[in-house]
Design brief:
The chain has 436 residues and is mostly helical. The chain contains 20 helices and two strands. It is globular.
Length: 436
Amino acid sequence: MKTRMAVLTLIVGLCAWSALAQNQPPPGPPRGPQTQDNAHRYSIEQATSDKAQLHTIAFDGLAFLTGDFAMDTFLPPGKVSDYFGFQYMRDIDAKEGGHNTSFLTKIAENTLAILNADQKAQLLALAKEQEADIQSFAEKRFPLIKAFRRNLEGDLPAGSKGLDKSAVVKFSADLYTLDGKLSYQRAKVMGAVIRSFDDKQKAALAKLKFGDSRTWPDVPEQLDKRSMSHEVNVAVMTYASEMFAWYAGSIDADTYFCPERHGMYFGGFGMKTAPAMGKQDYSISTSLTGDSGEAFLNALTDAQRKLITDLPDLQRKDLAEIVTTRRAISTELRRFQKGDTADQDKVLALSKRYGELDGEMSFLYASAFAKVGKTLTTEQKSKLAGMRATNPADPKGPFLYSAPISMPTIENTDFLFGVLPADFKAPATPTGTTGK
């Protein structure tokens, strides 16, 4: 069971969107590492295009309005510290197996098979060092998720008219600062391991092609899971897969993200990815996000639909700055591969800014979804509920990443509605009494 859960928890960045097929980028050479057939379909330009963004936002809206807090908490582990090119390698895979539950496991095992004992030990030590912060990152999302739900339900604190944008942005900035810390630590250790590769290891790694899982042979499990916690095992496997993508990829691959990377508080991953839990060799539909998002928009009135279709333009400036911020972070982290030292203060400052930008976008989404939700008719609610494929056997959450947990204790979230004193500081993790 533990082996199965380890594989399932490693469902990293399952990103599916049909907008790719509907909104191809202009002819021309693709950026970054590529496969002959797939790379032209995936680029940062495509990910930030209005169609890709609109379909993804609409899918999140459908998930949010038909879901619950538990589904909102689902988050693939690979969405943390994602500056190492793995998502791009997944999306351009020549075998089109990037969204299969075995993809990460296969490249991780191949990488680990090439590493020597000392190199593996460095990854293991990093996993143990980061275990608490990795868990904290997931837990720190819960107050924001709860506040967005309260806003949708009209459960507002006395004296508040709704979410406080500045409070949401600050909370998101703090969360992303933690992500920056995790990213910096990973790059430092993985960079040292990469610099220690000998010629034999480099030759073996060269046979494993970036973006072509057909070149990855089946190898036996490389780790003794009995010697480590489940969380540490997940982290080491994640590092191994990311390190290969980072080593074999490029700065363009590191900068890339799928459209679903931002505003990850609305249940999109829960609706799409949770059904993969408990299923071996399971592939996520690559048309689910686009098709469902389009159906959601078609079910709305003109006024409701406009609240959603306005979002790509409202977030345009923030999204453009996110691209430049991600590239700056990725560039700094790559210094570790060359034997240089990345500037930690710079990485943390950029990460904080990234969080502010994501917070602004999440605020826009939460506000628009709530306005739509409050105007839905009974008939519309029934129609939207019917778009959500459910299976009684699927895990219901809440989740710590993709692992089901008991309902967490969350501190009072009134501060995210701007009704507490300016000097109020929310707890770093949900350790207070259960609140609204």
